[in-house]
Amino acid sequence: MFSKACEYGIRAAVYITLQSLEGRRVSVNEIAEEIDSPIAFTAKTLQLLTRNDIVKSVKGPTGGFEIDREEMNNVKLNMIVKAIDGDKIFKGCGLGLKECNANQPCPLHDKFVDIRTNLSKMLASTNLYELAMGLEVGMTFLKR
């Protein structure tokens, strides 16, 4: 459903949230290792999350990635999806056709509208803090 970059982005943001709750900043290398993602790929994904004010990047010897405690509740999954994959999942055709809308629907259009609506609601109502708290026990799931 999501691109590989988006999946890694969500996992990276959750890992950063978990570490930030413990007062730690984490490096690209540590994040890549923990989410089982190539370092260069992780760096590009983190760059998108930083540009979109989802995580903070702090430079220097004690630097790394972090997220402010207040922001953990404000950052919703739909923000991460939009930052990495754009809004195609919220607006695009379920079959990937260019010309699909209510006036010219594809065979899946009406069914996909309900799925997209439910997905949008879930992504807009789920925040990083909620995910981090749900995963605090047994973080091994962050790796595939």
UniProtKB/TrEMBL annotation:
Pfam families: Rrf2. Gene3D superfamilies: Winged helix-like DNA-binding domain superfamily/Winged helix DNA-binding domain. InterPro entries: Tscrpt_reg_Rrf2, WH-like_DNA-bd_sf, WH_DNA-bd_sf. PANTHER family: TRANSCRIPTIONAL REGULATOR-RELATED, WINGED HELIX-TURN-HELIX TRANSCRIPTIONAL REGULATOR, RRF2 FAMILY. This is Rrf2 family transcriptional regulator. It comes from [Muricauda] lutisoli.
